[in-house]
Specification:
By secondary structure, the chain is α+β, with helices and mostly antiparallel strands. The chain is built from 3 helices and 10 strands. Helices cover about 25% and strands about 30% of the residues.
């Protein structure tokens, strides 16, 4: 087992008793009697949310957007971006997520084994011969082991009022 696989296996063991969050994927339902139905966000499983990473039982994903499912209602919006987010939240509700539940969409599958070949995969890369992660596009890389340990500790004991 490679160093990166070992880090994620250790993380999964530490995360085993902690809550997961929902993953969603856009789907277009079949037409009924030739009438198209609205696209929806359907369940694609669950993952532990560790900053820029989503860790599932068998994969590592890069985060995308996070929305809260919400029933569609007519509202006035000050910005087009608000209207788009409301439409996505309604699509998650149509997809079967309960109102108010957080759903991760737009995530990407990462290839942690690429680090063993010296390549990068999303926010994961090798720096100074060690696996590292970048928590933002303009942020610096930090060691993956410390990042996972810190994020698991935050998930286990979140800051007050978080």
């Amino acid at each position: 087992m490679s160093e990166v696989e070992e880090l994620f296996a250790d993380a999964r063991r530490a995360l085993a008793d902690l809550p997961t969050e929902n993953l969603g994927q856009w789907t277009t339902p079949r037409r009924i009697l030739g009438v198209p139905r609205a696209p929806r966000v359907a369940s694609a499983g669950t993952a532990w949310h560790l900053g820029v990473l989503l860790v599932t039982d068998d994969a590592v994903l890069g985060t995308g957007d996070i929305i809260r499912a919400r029933e569609e209602v007519r509202r006035g919006f000050a910005a087009e971006s608000q209207r788009e987010r409301a439409a996505i939240a309604a699509a998650a509700f149509r997809g079967g997520f309960p109102e108010g539940v957080a759903v991760h969409i737009g995530w990407t599958v990462l290839d942690p084994s690429a680090l063993d070949r010296g390549a990068a995969s999303g926010p994961l890369a090798v720096r100074d011969g060690r696996p590292a992660v970048r928590w933002s596009a303009s942020g610096a890389y930090q060691p993956l082991e410390g990042y996972l340990r810190e994020r698991i500790a935050l998930l286990r004991t979140p800051p007050e009022r978080a």
